[in-house]
Amino acid sequence: MSWQGLLKEYKDFLPVSETTPGISLLEGKTPLIKLGKLSAEFGVEAYAKIEGANPTGSFKDRGMVMAMAKAIEEGSHTVICASTGNTSASAAAYAARAGLRSIIVIPEGKIAQGKLAQAVMYGAEIYSIKGNFDDALKIVRKLAEQEDITLVNSINPYRIEGQKTAAFEVCDTLGKAPDYLCIPVGNAGNITAYWKGFKEYNEANETGLPKMMGFEASGAAAIVHNRVFENPETIGTAIRIGNPASWTQAVTARDESGGIIDEVTDEEMIEAYRWLASNEGIFAEPASSASVAGLFKSLKNGTISQGSQVVCVLTGNGLKDPQTAIDCSDFKPLVLENDEAFVIETILGRKKD
Ligand code: F0G
Fold first, then answer.
1. Cross-link of type Isoglutamyl lysine isopeptide (Lys-Gln) (interchain with Q-Cter in protein Pup): positions (predicted)?
2. What separation in Å is there between the alpha carbon of 239 and the centre of ligand 1?
3. pTM for this one?
Protein backbone atom coordinates (compact mmCIF):
# COMPACT_ATOMS: atom_id res chain seq x y z
CA MET A 1 0.00 0.00 0.00
CA SER A 2 1.26 3.51 -0.75
CA TRP A 3 2.49 5.82 2.01
CA GLN A 4 -0.38 7.36 4.02
CA GLY A 5 1.35 10.03 6.09
CA LEU A 6 2.65 9.97 9.65
CA LEU A 7 -0.56 9.83 11.65
CA LYS A 8 -1.60 6.59 9.97
CA GLU A 9 1.82 5.00 9.48
CA TYR A 10 3.00 5.47 13.07
CA LYS A 11 -0.35 5.59 14.89
CA ASP A 12 0.76 3.01 17.44
CA PHE A 13 3.48 5.38 18.65
CA LEU A 14 1.44 8.60 18.47
CA PRO A 15 -1.40 10.09 20.53
CA VAL A 16 -3.90 9.25 17.80
CA SER A 17 -7.40 8.11 18.78
CA GLU A 18 -10.65 7.49 16.89
CA THR A 19 -11.54 11.15 17.27
CA THR A 20 -8.23 12.47 15.91
CA PRO A 21 -8.79 13.82 12.39
CA GLY A 22 -6.65 12.05 9.81
CA ILE A 23 -5.18 15.16 8.20
CA SER A 24 -2.10 14.79 6.05
CA LEU A 25 -0.01 16.20 3.25
CA LEU A 26 1.68 12.78 3.05
CA GLU A 27 4.58 14.02 5.13
CA GLY A 28 7.42 11.74 6.25
CA LYS A 29 9.16 8.81 4.52
CA THR A 30 11.99 11.14 3.53
CA PRO A 31 15.10 9.74 1.83
CA LEU A 32 18.17 8.65 3.76
CA ILE A 33 20.97 9.21 1.28
CA LYS A 34 24.51 7.88 1.61
CA LEU A 35 27.09 10.65 1.60
CA GLY A 36 29.44 8.75 -0.69
CA LYS A 37 32.26 11.23 -1.05
CA LEU A 38 32.28 12.22 2.60
CA SER A 39 32.26 8.57 3.67
CA ALA A 40 35.16 7.70 1.38
CA GLU A 41 37.20 10.73 2.37
CA PHE A 42 36.92 10.20 6.13
CA GLY A 43 36.49 6.42 6.39
CA VAL A 44 33.01 6.58 7.89
CA GLU A 45 29.54 5.45 6.83
CA ALA A 46 27.65 8.73 6.64
CA TYR A 47 24.07 9.38 5.57
CA ALA A 48 21.87 12.44 5.25
CA LYS A 49 18.21 12.42 6.25
CA ILE A 50 16.64 14.70 3.67
CA GLU A 51 13.94 16.48 5.63
CA GLY A 52 13.67 19.10 2.90
CA ALA A 53 11.71 16.44 0.99
CA ASN A 54 8.71 16.98 3.27
CA PRO A 55 5.66 18.72 1.75
CA THR A 56 6.59 22.26 2.84
CA GLY A 57 10.33 21.60 2.55
CA SER A 58 11.29 21.07 6.19
CA PHE A 59 11.04 18.65 9.12
CA LYS A 60 8.42 20.88 10.73
CA ASP A 61 5.67 19.06 8.82
CA ARG A 62 6.14 16.00 11.02
CA GLY A 63 5.31 17.92 14.16
CA MET A 64 2.78 20.19 12.56
CA VAL A 65 0.49 17.44 11.25
CA MET A 66 0.24 16.05 14.79
CA ALA A 67 -0.18 19.43 16.49
CA MET A 68 -2.80 20.53 13.97
CA ALA A 69 -4.76 17.28 14.27
CA LYS A 70 -4.87 17.61 18.06
CA ALA A 71 -5.82 21.30 17.84
CA ILE A 72 -8.79 20.36 15.66
CA GLU A 73 -9.69 17.44 17.91
CA GLU A 74 -9.72 19.81 20.89
CA GLY A 75 -12.05 22.22 19.07
CA SER A 76 -9.56 24.96 18.20
CA HIS A 77 -10.18 27.26 15.24
CA THR A 78 -6.97 29.32 15.35
CA VAL A 79 -3.29 28.44 15.59
CA ILE A 80 -0.37 30.75 16.30
CA CYS A 81 3.40 30.47 16.23
CA ALA A 82 6.60 32.48 16.35
CA SER A 83 9.05 31.42 13.70
CA THR A 84 12.35 31.85 11.94
CA GLY A 85 10.39 30.75 8.86
CA ASN A 86 9.92 27.03 8.56
CA THR A 87 7.47 26.53 11.42
CA SER A 88 5.33 29.34 10.04
CA ALA A 89 5.36 27.88 6.53
CA SER A 90 4.31 24.49 7.85
CA ALA A 91 1.67 25.86 10.24
CA ALA A 92 0.18 27.96 7.46
CA ALA A 93 0.03 25.01 5.06
CA TYR A 94 -1.66 22.57 7.45
CA ALA A 95 -4.02 25.31 8.69
CA ALA A 96 -5.01 26.06 5.11
CA ARG A 97 -5.66 22.40 4.41
CA ALA A 98 -7.65 21.88 7.61
CA GLY A 99 -9.56 25.18 7.38
CA LEU A 100 -8.10 26.89 10.45
CA ARG A 101 -6.97 30.47 10.88
CA SER A 102 -3.20 30.79 11.23
CA ILE A 103 -1.34 33.70 12.80
CA ILE A 104 2.43 33.93 12.57
CA VAL A 105 4.90 36.30 14.25
CA ILE A 106 8.33 36.56 12.64
CA PRO A 107 11.52 38.60 13.10
CA GLU A 108 11.58 41.38 10.54
CA GLY A 109 14.15 40.98 7.75
CA LYS A 110 15.53 37.69 9.08
CA ILE A 111 13.30 35.26 7.23
CA ALA A 112 14.49 33.57 4.05
CA GLN A 113 12.40 34.64 1.08
CA GLY A 114 11.11 31.19 0.19
CA LYS A 115 9.67 30.71 3.67
CA LEU A 116 7.92 34.06 3.62
CA ALA A 117 6.55 33.31 0.15
CA GLN A 118 5.09 30.07 1.49
CA ALA A 119 3.33 31.74 4.43
CA VAL A 120 1.92 34.37 2.09
CA MET A 121 0.64 31.80 -0.39
CA TYR A 122 -0.92 29.54 2.26
CA GLY A 123 -2.81 32.56 3.55
CA ALA A 124 -1.38 33.09 7.04
CA GLU A 125 -1.89 36.35 8.94
CA ILE A 126 1.68 37.60 9.13
CA TYR A 127 3.09 39.97 11.75
CA SER A 128 6.71 40.99 11.39
CA ILE A 129 8.22 42.38 14.60
CA LYS A 130 11.27 44.54 15.16
CA GLY A 131 12.76 41.91 17.41
CA ASN A 132 14.20 38.41 17.19
CA PHE A 133 12.66 34.92 17.40
CA ASP A 134 12.97 34.81 21.19
CA ASP A 135 10.97 38.06 21.48
CA ALA A 136 8.34 36.71 19.09
CA LEU A 137 8.03 33.47 21.06
CA LYS A 138 7.41 35.38 24.28
CA ILE A 139 4.58 37.29 22.65
CA VAL A 140 2.80 34.29 21.15
CA ARG A 141 3.13 32.29 24.37
CA LYS A 142 1.39 35.06 26.25
CA LEU A 143 -1.36 35.40 23.67
CA ALA A 144 -2.01 31.66 23.61
CA GLU A 145 -2.31 31.65 27.42
CA GLN A 146 -4.88 34.44 27.38
CA GLU A 147 -6.94 33.55 24.35
CA ASP A 148 -8.56 30.51 22.82
CA ILE A 149 -5.71 30.09 20.36
CA THR A 150 -3.50 27.01 20.02
CA LEU A 151 0.25 27.53 20.15
CA VAL A 152 2.01 25.31 17.59
CA ASN A 153 5.63 26.03 18.44
CA SER A 154 7.63 23.03 19.63
CA ILE A 155 6.74 23.72 23.28
CA ASN A 156 3.44 22.17 22.20
CA PRO A 157 4.13 18.52 23.17
CA TYR A 158 2.31 17.20 20.10
CA ARG A 159 4.98 18.80 17.90
CA ILE A 160 7.63 16.66 19.60
CA GLU A 161 5.45 13.57 19.21
CA GLY A 162 5.18 14.07 15.46
CA GLN A 163 8.84 14.94 14.98
CA LYS A 164 10.08 11.83 16.80
CA THR A 165 8.90 9.78 13.79
CA ALA A 166 12.04 10.81 11.91
CA ALA A 167 14.07 8.67 14.34
CA PHE A 168 11.76 5.73 13.59
CA GLU A 169 12.39 6.12 9.87
CA VAL A 170 16.16 6.23 10.35
CA CYS A 171 15.99 2.95 12.32
CA ASP A 172 13.61 1.38 9.78
CA THR A 173 16.00 2.19 6.93
CA LEU A 174 19.26 1.21 8.61
CA GLY A 175 17.75 -1.68 10.57
CA LYS A 176 19.02 -0.06 13.78
CA ALA A 177 20.00 3.31 15.21
CA PRO A 178 23.29 4.77 13.88
CA ASP A 179 26.30 5.29 16.15
CA TYR A 180 25.90 9.06 15.92
CA LEU A 181 23.07 11.42 15.01
CA CYS A 182 24.26 14.91 13.98
CA ILE A 183 21.58 17.57 14.11
CA PRO A 184 21.32 21.38 14.00
CA VAL A 185 20.04 22.96 17.22
CA GLY A 186 17.96 26.14 17.31
CA ASN A 187 15.04 26.12 19.71
CA ALA A 188 16.10 22.54 20.58
CA GLY A 189 12.76 20.88 19.87
CA ASN A 190 14.07 18.57 17.17
CA ILE A 191 16.97 17.10 19.15
CA THR A 192 14.45 16.50 21.95
CA ALA A 193 12.09 14.76 19.52
CA TYR A 194 14.73 12.52 17.93
CA TRP A 195 15.99 11.38 21.31
CA LYS A 196 12.44 10.54 22.43
CA GLY A 197 11.92 8.66 19.17
CA PHE A 198 15.12 6.64 19.42
CA LYS A 199 14.34 5.67 23.01
CA GLU A 200 10.76 4.59 22.24
CA TYR A 201 11.80 2.59 19.18
CA ASN A 202 14.57 0.94 21.12
CA GLU A 203 12.11 -0.12 23.80
CA ALA A 204 9.70 -1.52 21.21
CA ASN A 205 12.15 -2.99 18.69
CA GLU A 206 15.61 -3.08 20.32
CA THR A 207 17.04 -0.76 17.68
CA GLY A 208 19.73 0.65 19.97
CA LEU A 209 20.58 4.27 20.75
CA PRO A 210 22.84 6.77 18.98
CA LYS A 211 25.04 9.41 20.56
CA MET A 212 23.22 12.70 20.02
CA MET A 213 25.50 15.34 18.46
CA GLY A 214 23.77 18.74 18.45
CA PHE A 215 25.28 21.76 16.70
CA GLU A 216 24.38 25.39 17.37
CA ALA A 217 25.61 28.34 15.33
CA SER A 218 28.52 30.11 17.08
CA GLY A 219 26.61 33.39 17.11
CA ALA A 220 23.65 31.72 18.80
CA ALA A 221 25.27 29.05 20.95
CA ALA A 222 23.37 29.42 24.21
CA ILE A 223 23.55 25.79 25.28
CA VAL A 224 27.26 25.45 24.44
CA HIS A 225 28.16 28.50 26.53
CA ASN A 226 25.43 28.01 29.11
CA ARG A 227 24.14 31.58 28.77
CA VAL A 228 21.35 33.33 26.93
CA PHE A 229 22.48 35.14 23.75
CA GLU A 230 20.57 38.44 23.83
CA ASN A 231 21.42 39.29 20.23
CA PRO A 232 21.86 36.02 18.36
CA GLU A 233 23.36 36.34 14.89
CA THR A 234 24.10 33.79 12.19
CA ILE A 235 23.79 33.31 8.47
CA GLY A 236 21.69 30.24 9.30
CA THR A 237 18.64 32.37 10.12
CA ALA A 238 16.58 29.26 10.90
CA ILE A 239 18.66 28.70 14.06
CA ARG A 240 19.15 32.36 15.00
CA ILE A 241 17.83 31.71 18.51
CA GLY A 242 19.43 32.94 21.75
CA ASN A 243 17.28 31.28 24.40
CA PRO A 244 16.13 27.82 23.26
CA ALA A 245 12.77 26.79 24.71
CA SER A 246 13.77 23.11 25.01
CA TRP A 247 17.20 23.86 26.48
CA THR A 248 16.87 21.43 29.41
CA GLN A 249 15.58 18.60 27.21
CA ALA A 250 18.50 19.09 24.79
CA VAL A 251 20.99 18.82 27.63
CA THR A 252 19.23 15.66 28.80
CA ALA A 253 19.43 14.16 25.29
CA ARG A 254 23.14 14.98 25.17
CA ASP A 255 23.90 13.56 28.61
CA GLU A 256 21.72 10.45 28.47
CA SER A 257 23.13 9.50 25.07
CA GLY A 258 26.77 10.32 25.84
CA GLY A 259 26.82 12.87 23.02
CA ILE A 260 27.80 16.51 22.76
CA ILE A 261 26.35 19.91 21.97
CA ASP A 262 28.96 21.93 20.12
CA GLU A 263 29.00 24.99 17.89
CA VAL A 264 29.92 25.65 14.25
CA THR A 265 30.89 29.01 12.80
CA ASP A 266 29.07 30.61 9.87
CA GLU A 267 32.15 29.87 7.75
CA GLU A 268 32.04 26.19 8.68
CA MET A 269 28.31 26.08 7.96
CA ILE A 270 28.70 27.69 4.54
CA GLU A 271 31.61 25.42 3.69
CA ALA A 272 29.48 22.35 4.47
CA TYR A 273 26.52 23.90 2.59
CA ARG A 274 28.59 24.34 -0.54
CA TRP A 275 30.34 21.01 -0.11
CA LEU A 276 27.06 19.11 0.11
CA ALA A 277 25.68 20.72 -3.03
CA SER A 278 28.80 20.47 -5.17
CA ASN A 279 30.04 17.05 -4.02
CA GLU A 280 26.93 15.11 -3.05
CA GLY A 281 24.25 16.84 -5.16
CA ILE A 282 22.26 17.79 -2.06
CA PHE A 283 20.98 21.32 -1.62
CA ALA A 284 20.01 21.91 2.00
CA GLU A 285 19.42 25.29 3.60
CA PRO A 286 22.35 26.92 5.44
CA ALA A 287 21.17 26.14 8.99
CA SER A 288 20.63 22.51 8.02
CA SER A 289 24.25 22.25 7.02
CA ALA A 290 25.23 22.79 10.66
CA SER A 291 24.84 19.02 11.08
CA VAL A 292 27.37 18.25 8.36
CA ALA A 293 29.65 21.10 9.48
CA GLY A 294 29.48 19.51 12.92
CA LEU A 295 30.37 16.12 11.49
CA PHE A 296 33.39 17.59 9.68
CA LYS A 297 34.48 19.27 12.91
CA SER A 298 33.99 16.11 14.98
CA LEU A 299 35.93 14.00 12.48
CA LYS A 300 38.80 16.47 12.44
CA ASN A 301 39.03 16.78 16.22
CA GLY A 302 38.56 13.05 16.77
CA THR A 303 35.22 13.18 18.61
CA ILE A 304 33.83 10.87 15.92
CA SER A 305 36.23 8.13 14.86
CA GLN A 306 36.73 6.25 11.61
CA GLY A 307 34.44 3.33 10.99
CA SER A 308 31.45 5.01 12.67
CA GLN A 309 27.99 5.01 11.20
CA VAL A 310 26.60 8.56 11.24
CA VAL A 311 23.31 10.15 10.20
CA CYS A 312 23.22 13.91 9.60
CA VAL A 313 19.80 15.52 9.65
CA LEU A 314 19.35 18.02 6.83
CA THR A 315 16.38 19.85 8.24
CA GLY A 316 15.30 22.10 5.35
CA ASN A 317 15.44 22.47 1.58
CA GLY A 318 18.06 24.76 0.03
CA LEU A 319 15.44 26.33 -2.21
CA LYS A 320 13.98 28.03 0.85
CA ASP A 321 16.83 30.54 0.81
CA PRO A 322 17.99 31.25 -2.74
CA GLN A 323 19.58 34.57 -1.76
CA THR A 324 22.17 33.01 0.53
CA ALA A 325 23.08 30.54 -2.22
CA ILE A 326 23.69 33.31 -4.71
CA ASP A 327 25.47 35.54 -2.17
CA CYS A 328 27.93 32.91 -1.04
CA SER A 329 28.90 31.60 -4.48
CA ASP A 330 31.36 33.08 -6.97
CA PHE A 331 28.65 32.94 -9.62
CA LYS A 332 28.79 35.89 -11.99
CA PRO A 333 26.19 36.00 -14.73
CA LEU A 334 27.80 35.96 -18.15
CA VAL A 335 25.34 37.41 -20.63
CA LEU A 336 26.17 36.73 -24.27
CA GLU A 337 24.80 37.97 -27.55
CA ASN A 338 22.37 35.51 -29.14
CA ASP A 339 24.90 34.46 -31.74
CA GLU A 340 25.38 30.73 -32.16
CA ALA A 341 28.99 30.80 -33.28
CA PHE A 342 29.96 33.29 -30.58
CA VAL A 343 28.23 31.33 -27.80
CA ILE A 344 29.88 28.07 -28.85
CA GLU A 345 33.24 29.76 -29.18
CA THR A 346 32.90 31.30 -25.73
CA ILE A 347 31.90 27.98 -24.12
CA LEU A 348 34.76 26.10 -25.77
CA GLY A 349 37.18 28.91 -25.01
CA ARG A 350 36.22 28.80 -21.36
CA LYS A 351 36.55 25.03 -21.18
CA LYS A 352 40.20 25.29 -22.17
CA ASP A 353 41.26 27.54 -19.30
N1 F0G B 1 16.93 23.62 10.89
C2 F0G B 1 15.96 24.35 10.31
C3 F0G B 1 15.92 24.43 8.81
C4 F0G B 1 15.00 25.00 11.12
O5 F0G B 1 14.04 25.71 10.55
C6 F0G B 1 15.11 24.90 12.53
C7 F0G B 1 14.17 25.59 13.40
C8 F0G B 1 16.15 24.11 13.05
C9 F0G B 1 17.03 23.50 12.20
C10 F0G B 1 16.34 23.92 14.49
O11 F0G B 1 15.37 23.07 15.05
O12 F0G B 1 14.45 24.65 16.71
O13 F0G B 1 13.93 22.22 16.80
O14 F0G B 1 16.21 23.05 17.35
N15 F0G B 1 13.32 26.41 13.00
C16 F0G B 1 12.26 27.01 13.83
C17 F0G B 1 11.29 27.79 12.96
C18 F0G B 1 12.75 27.74 15.01
O19 F0G B 1 10.66 28.73 13.46
O20 F0G B 1 11.10 27.42 11.82
P21 F0G B 1 14.97 23.25 16.57
1. 142
2. 6
3. 0.97
- Report the pLDDT averaged over residues 137-151: 97
Dump pLDDT digits (tens) for 5-36: 999 999 999 999 999 999 999 999 999 999 99
- For ligand 1, whether the C-beta of 178 sits within 6 Å is no
- Please give the CATH topology (third level) of the domain spanning 59-151: Rossmann fold (3.40.50)
Asked whether the predicted pLDDT for residue 116 surpasses 60, the reply is: yes
Which one of 315, 319, 321, 324 would you pick to mutate in the ligand 1 pocket, going by the greatest count of ligand atoms within 8 A of its CB? 315
Pick from 58, 151, 247 the residue to mutate for probing ligand 1's pocket: most ligand atoms within 8 Å of its CB: 58
Query: Where do the structural domains in the chain lie, given as residue ranges?
Result: 6-58+157-328, 59-151
* Domain pair 6-58+157-328 / 59-151, same fold: yes
Q: How does pLDDT run across 159-194, given as a tens digit for each residue? A: 999 999 999 999 999 999 999 999 999 999 999 999
ipTM above 0.95?
yes
* 236 Cβ inside 6 Å of ligand 1: no
Cα Dmax for the chain:
70
Q: For residue 189, say whether it is annotated as part of any ligand binding site.
A: yes
Q: How far apart are CA 268 and CA 251, in angstroms?
A: 23
Residues with Cβ < 8 Å from 18, sequence gap 6 or more? none
User: Of all helices (H) and strands (E), which one includes residue 41?
Assistant: helix 36-42
Pick the CATH number of 6-58+157-328 from 3.40.50.300, 3.40.50.1100, 1.20.1290.10, 3.30.310.50: 3.40.50.1100
Q: Is the beta carbon of 152 within 6 A of some atom in ligand 1?
A: no
